[in-house]
Amino acid sequence: MGFASGWWDAAFLPQDAGLHNPARAENPPLLPYRLHAARHKVVESAAQRIDARVPPMALLRRIKDEDRTDMTFQTKLAATVALTIAVAAPLPALALDDAQKKEMGEFIKEYLVENPEILLDVQEALQKKQEAQQQAKAQSAITDNEKAIFSSPYDIALGNPKGDVTIVEFFDYNCGYCKRALSDMDELLKEDKNIRFVLKELPILGPDSLAAHKVSAAFRDLSPEKYGEFHRALLGGEGRATEESAIALAASMGVPEADIRKTMTEKPHDDAVRQAYSLANDLGITGTPSYVIGQEMVFGAVGVDDLKEKIANVRACGKANCS
Fold it and tell me: Which of 8, 48, 102, 303 is most deeply packed, by most CB within 10 A?
């Protein structure tokens, strides 16, 4: 994906309304029992078989006394889970002194060194949890901003205006991945005559992108019936999209430069830019292309096959993901 440079935040948004940056989020602590979902039931049942009332150091010594070569992965995992539960129990009787804490720390370190795959399980579980949280936030934002996302007067939709599935693409004319994804849109519209495809310009890749967007908005006002052709030519063209290149393209399609510049002055479309940035912030978009399909966000140029699958899912179950 093409990522936002952040230069536009101060110009169009409140100081505290920059696009969502995952690096700023406060991630929850990585606890040993946050494990791969596929092993969850095994761990849970095994942990239940260990008496959590046993003092943690006694449990620790019991585990250390076992022949570790005979311990299965599930047994080791369950032991760590049980230790975590025991240590976390809010009972004064389970408090550890300094020596016990040291012994516990050494054991946990030794265990993780011997079983480093646990860290991969934790990382994967964390990633899935963050993705689920991101989708939950996006779904709420989609519900709250349905009209601005799917029916904004600033956008133009290609394909069937009464299509049974609507796709909204956030894009930047200078985004390399958006250029590659252009063929995905064309294939979908060619093969499926019941799709409504909304083009939502999100100029995040510098002043040239913003300038090209303003030309595009003026062209759309003056010649909306040719906007699809203009969009494909500007996004699919060689080199960087700029005000000059966009104006030259418009002139080649019969819209004079003087008309473009007059419309840009009279209708600068700053509200459209502000709305797009605000939606991107609410939806958790950090780069382009990003899509809204049904009530789900799709981040990145995922390819036409994934898009087709999500479209089919919307028709089958009303959601982009039926599982």
Answer: 8
Q: What is the full DSSP assignment across 111-178?
A: HHHH-THHHHHHHHHHHHHHHHHHHHHHHHHHHHTHHHHHS-TT-EEEE-TT-SEEEEEEE-TT-HHH
Which residues of the chain, if any, have pLDDT below 50?
Answer: 2-53, 67, 69-70, 73-74, 91, 93
Task: Confirm if 313 and 320 have CB atoms less than 8 A apart.
Answer: yes
Pairing of strands 296-299, 290-293: antiparallel
In angstroms, the CA 167 to CA 307 distance is 9
> How far is residue 116's CA from residue 279's CA, in Å, rounded to a whole number?
41
The pTM of the full predicted model, rounded to 2 decimals, is: 0.66
CA distance linking residue 128 with residue 95, whole number of Å:
33
What whole-number distance in Å separates Cα of residue 120 and Cα of residue 125? 8
Contact indicator for 43, 81 with CB cutoff of 8 Å: yes
Looking at residue 144, its pLDDT comes to 95
Q: How far, in whole angstroms, is CA 204 from its chain's centroid?
A: 16
Give the containing element (helix H, strand E) for 201. Answer: strand 195-201
Specify whether the CB–CB gap between 276 and 209 falls below 8 A.
no
Kindly calculate the radius of gyration of the chain based on its CA atoms and give it in whole angstroms: 27
The answer to whether 8 and 277 are in contact (CB under 8 A) is yes
Domain locations along the chain: 37-121, 145-317
pLDDT value, residue 119: 84
CATH class of 145-317: alpha beta
